[in-house]
């Protein structure tokens, strides 16, 4: 699971062609929000409840079954005022795919399977990479040095690996592991 950086997506596709690559829901919503801002629609978003709901519906397309995305997008587009055309054109080109002259659509920059999380919701698996980012933050705090030497970093990684192995053994033996939130 990654964010929506084109370079990251291409690298994952090139280096790991056989994996299921998903985008993070939080980062997907940030893609949309940044476009609201860049199109000069922030004030409208803050003041116009209908517009705000429509933007949230664009983001909510991530929860719709894959075969219903285009139908859902068309329904949502009908709810927007003309001043949001630039936002909708961006979203269509980037996430939906622009209509071809006769039938079908062009391939979008972000494939539907990358940003759609319907299957993840049904399977009750994470929709975002918050847990990974949380671990990175906690690990950075444990390292406690902004630019550690390779020796110091290696030592911290070995400690982290040992902790992980102990936790996995406890889990496999049906024991609870200590967490800070517990």
Structural overview:
This protein is an all-alpha fold and 182 residues long. The chain has helices spanning 6-15, 25-38, 42-47, 49-60, 69-77, 85-96, 112-115, 118-122, 130-143, 150-172. It has two domains: 6-122, no CATH class; 130-172. The longest helix has 23 residues, at 150-172. The mean pLDDT is 89. It comes from Rotaria magnacalcarata.
What structural class should be given to the helix and strand makeup?
mainly alpha
- Show unreliable segments: none
Radius of gyration: 21 Å
Number of helices, where a helix is a run of at least 4 consecutive DSSP H or I residues: 10
The largest β sheet comes out as: none
Number of domains: 2
- The tally of strands reads 0
Helix proportion range: 55-70%
Order of helices and strands: HHHHHHHHHH
User: What's the shape?
Assistant: elongated
Organism: Rotaria magnacalcarata
Protein name: MULE transposase domain-containing protein
Would you kindly provide a brief summary of this structure?
By secondary structure, the protein is mainly α.
